[in-house]
């Protein structure tokens, strides 16, 4: 836990934590949380992404990218809506077509380091449906090794093999 007193002190604290090898959760207190979050975002390159949770009966469409089990998602391109991005990314990464968005599920935030910069990514998640029987084709150019269907009851088994930012999304799906 940390009390926000100055932007530079808070920034130093955050980047100290980010250099730690373990996953962490930090609570930062401030009188104005909106202002604090705006300052927090200013420490990073902020990017937007969207993805989909494709369901068929009791199964979810999953990908394995660079050895990690994940959900299909990607960056929003200029001039593209969040929903268009979600559909395009799932289609590209999984090789399926005729997707339809059912509902907005939630948004997640996570931080990563790439190209010598820290990024703060907001990902918008949508539930989707697609016609059954389509061949799953991994987008290998994006490092996707495998596309597969996972039974909802097997979510607990793969949680240790996925990103911390996805665990809440997957657990919410398991309970629904």
Properties at a glance:
single chain, 176 residues, alpha+beta, seven-stranded mixed beta sheet, two-stranded parallel sheet, elongated
Strand content is 35-45%
Helix content: 25-40%
As residue ranges, the low-confidence spans are none
Strand and helix order: EHEHEEEEHEEEHH
Secondary structure class reads alpha+beta
Shape: elongated
Quaternary organisation of the protein chains: single chain
Mean pLDDT value:
91
N- and C-termini, Cα separation: 32 Å
Total helical segments: 5
Beta strand count: 9
Alpha-carbon Rg, integer: 18 Å
Description:
- The chain has five helices and nine strands, in the order E-H-E-H-E-E-E-E-H-E-E-E-H-H.
- It is of the alpha+beta class.
- Strands 3, 4, 5, 6, 7, 8 and 9 form a seven-stranded mixed β-sheet that branches. A two-stranded parallel sheet has the order 1-2.
- The longest helix is centred in the middle third of the chain and has 13 residues.
- It is elongated, with a radius of gyration of 18 Å.
């Amino acid at each position: 836990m940390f009390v926000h007193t100055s932007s530079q002190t808070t920034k130093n604290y955050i980047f100290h934590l980010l250099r730690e090898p373990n996953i962490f959760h930090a609570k930062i207190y401030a009188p104005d949380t909106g202002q604090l979050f705006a300052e927090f975002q200013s420490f990073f390159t902020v990017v937007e992404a969207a993805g989909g949770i494709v369901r068929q009966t009791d199964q979810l469409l999953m990908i394995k990218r660079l050895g990690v089990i994940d959900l299909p998602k990607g960056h929003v391109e200029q001039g593209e809506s969040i929903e268009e991005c979600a559909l395009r990314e799932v289609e590209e990464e999984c090789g399926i077509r005729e997707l339809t968005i059912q509902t907005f599920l939630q948004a997640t935030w996570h931080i990563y380091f790439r190209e010598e910069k820290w990024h703060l990514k907001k990902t918008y998640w949508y539930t989707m449906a697609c016609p059954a029987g389509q061949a799953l084709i991994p987008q290998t150019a994006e490092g996707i090794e495998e596309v597969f269907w996972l039974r909802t009851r097997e979510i607990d088994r793969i949680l240790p093999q996925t990103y911390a930012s996805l665990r809440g999304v997957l657990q919410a799906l398991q309970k629904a």
